[in-house]
Amino acid sequence: MTASQDALIERFLEMMAGERAAADNTLAAYGRDLRDLAGFLAARGESLAGADAGAIRAYLADLHAQGLAERTAARRIATLRQFYGFLYAEGWRADDPAQALDSPTPKRPLPKVLGEDEVDRLLAEARALEGPRGLRLAALVELLYATGLRVSELVTLPVRAARRRSDTLVIEGKGGNERMVPINQPARDALAAYLPLRPSFLPPGADAGWLFPSRTSRSGHLTRDRVAQLLKDLAVRAGIHPDRVSPHVVRHAFATHLLANGADLRSLQQMLGHADISTTQIYTHVLDARLKELVTERHPLARGLTNLTRGG
């Protein structure tokens, strides 16, 4: 790459830092992307500043052939649009060759899912633990799986939410929106067993009113990270790889298992606190993928059907 190309990249990065307040990591990524493009163009005998739309598309096609992830490709395209838009605005080019580039739409990854038998193992291990910490953990896991709460909603539950004689919880979700979530008998029983021992987790001389208080956190309640670690420790006890278990995975299990057992999307949307039903619809895709796996890998006739197909 020539010095003039280096200078153009540096001027672009200075502009992004000064006028757009781009973060250091973002600037570093822009620099890597542009130097990678410059290397590709140099091998074709072309320059970074003089590349036309065809050369840029050839570069993107080369990235695709290398198996570049869609999210990374989308970021590269964003970099090129910013860079060539900058050259055009500053008068170093008479046109903008990146203006017509189409960004790939990244595929939304399917959530990780635990089977019902795996959740049963987690719950059984939590119920088997004794003492205040064991009863607290059982209450946490039962509540997560019974309600599908976000972990941020779980740790900020007020203690009054559990003291009401009701089969529902009133949850304050994103944006301060309230929703009512049903709570089943096992979760109510776990809370009833935990509540008498709750004072053992309170900071000395203080009661902030949290259902799950903590002596060590600044907020006065259990942190999201602490709940995540407790779940991973429980997963190990249950014989499940800890990487597969998190508060959000338990929320996914709640949603997927409800759908599999006949719940409708609108009700599930309300319980999860999704503003848009399209967010809830991801769980139908999870079920589709799960059913395909069951048929192709676990059905008793799957191997025989495969052999028949191979045999013509």
TrEMBL record:
Q: Which InterPro entries match?
A: CB (IPR044068), DNA_brk_join_enz (IPR011010), Integrase-like_cat_sf (IPR013762), Integrase_catalytic (IPR002104), Integrase_recombinase_N (IPR010998), Integrase_SAM-like_N (IPR004107), Recomb_XerD (IPR011932), Tyrosine_recombinase_XerC/XerD (IPR023009)
Q: Which GO terms describe its molecular function?
A: DNA binding; tyrosine-based site-specific recombinase activity
According to the entry, every stretch annotated as the Core-binding (CB) domain falls at: 3-88
Q: Where is the signal peptide?
A: none
Domain of life the protein comes from: Bacteria
Q: Where is the active site?
A: 150, 174, 248, 251, 274, 283
Q: Where is this protein localized, as stated in its record?
A: Cytoplasm
Name the NCBIfam families on file: PRK00283.1 (NF001399)
HAMAP family listed in its UniProt record: Recomb_XerC_XerD, Recomb_XerD
Q: What is this protein called?
A: Tyrosine recombinase XerD
What is the species listed in this Swiss-Prot or TrEMBL entry? Limimonas halophila
Identify the coding gene.
xerD
